[in-house]
Amino acid sequence: MDLGIRGKKALVCASSKGLGRGCAEALAEAGVDLILNARSAGPLEETAESIRSRFGVNVTAVAADITSEEGRAMVLDAAGQPDILVTNAGGPPPGMWTDWDREDFIRALDANMLTPIALMKACLPPMMERGWGRVVNITSQSVKSPIAALGLSNSARAGLTGYVAGTSRQVAPSGVTINNILPGIHATDRAISLDTGVAKSQGIDVDTARAQREATIPVRRYGTAAEFGAMCAFLCSQHAGFIVGQNILLDGGAGNSTL
Ligand code: NAP
């Protein structure tokens, strides 16, 4: 399917690896020029070069912490006025409700709620002026089915979801859509680190921890970054202009609910 977005420009945050990279590759395959971002310059430049050589699109790489004000300023400066914005950042650490104080919540809210909101506030006005834009926020399945150990993530992402629910309706008349994709477990470094934590706490090896987790998913495997990216690219396409303020769960059926 031609996604109809060849020649557009996308800012994809936190995209040297994992789900962000999956989104960047799928957009590049659709002919979209990219601004990529991550904190570590080496892996980011490798990803940028791989995407340039495979898809022939223009790729600018900006090494910066997207959750800091200075980092965001650098990234937004390089991005100019993107047609497409994909927000993403690392997730907060797991723990127990007794572990977290005000400062922990402020950090989580900054990274996973206020950072995407700041990016949207910067990128939405030119999209609205041009009458076309697409925003996809990478959130988490925890918005629908809380993961007890990820209380910081549950809280921050629920806040972002509420913001998107209202804001998406305010910008839709200008041809701009905002939607969230909610990853269930996907085979990325983040999944390895969560499995390693489970393995340590249960005194088992990482492969056993992963096999246990896969057994709880109806498709009996983890999702891939390529599958995730394909959904992101579709939501950014010309075909998705009637999809507004939605939360698309990609979890292999793990969340047991009717709606
Ligand atoms: P990942 O494989 O660990 O990749 C994270 C990417 O983001 C890397 O490119 C990393 O590069 C970059 N990054 C992290 N923090 C950043 C920051 N502050 N500023 C700029 N770049 C940053 O993670 P992932 O699995 O793709 O997860 C992406 C998001 O989805 C996370 O918020 C995660 O919590 C959420 N999620 C993932 C899953 C899953 O199963 N994978 C499930 C639910 C939710 P640098 O380290 O070099 O910055």
UniProtKB/TrEMBL annotation:
Where does this protein have coiled-coil stretches?
A: none
Give the matching InterPro entries. Answer: NAD(P)-bd_dom_sf (IPR036291), SDR (IPR050259), SDR_fam (IPR002347)
Q: Name one Pfam family in it.
A: adh_short_C2
Q: Which PANTHER family match?
A: 3-OXOACYL-(ACYL-CARRIER-PROTEIN) REDUCTASE, NADPH-DEPENDENT REDUCTASE BACG
| Protein family membership | Belongs to the short-chain dehydrogenases/reductases (SDR) family.
- The name this protein carries in UniProt is SDR family oxidoreductase
Organism whose genome encodes this protein:
Halodurantibacterium flavum
Q: What is the lineage of its organism?
A: Bacteria, Pseudomonadati, Pseudomonadota, Alphaproteobacteria, Rhodobacterales
